[in-house]
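Case study 2.
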Amino acid sequence: MKANWENEKVSLFKNLLLAGVAAASLSGMAYAANDMSPEAVAERTMPVGSVYTAADLEGIIDTAAAGGDSGEPAEPRGGEAVYNAACSACHGTGAAGAPVKGDAAAWGPRVDKGRDTLLSHALNGFNAMPARGACGNCSDEEIANAVDYMLDAI
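Prediction:
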């Protein structure tokens, strides 16, 4: 009789343990169902970057390649073309603490250091800004044109 009682206790323990595991599983499934709401899915799958079209990249493509093999170097791009192609990602939005083009208050302390310092920062990088503003195919003159373009806006 004692063995029978022991078997019943083990069986009761197994059933309680099974019920506990089942309850935990079901509660986890209910939690997971909440995470499958359209809002939660949209938040997890929202874009983290941008797509650029050919029009966005106008001025970046080497004009010598587009114009044929004349053998002559391409004319340097103007400040607006370089700004739109490379600088506006940060200086148009204020990303990473970049001063927004046209914001005199944000540019004031930087302008006080002088154009040569600004140009050096643009060419060599400074704080969060990468060298050449990550425009690998920009010449020094084109970077200077972009700096002047932004300074003219304040």
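The longest helix spans residues 2-35.
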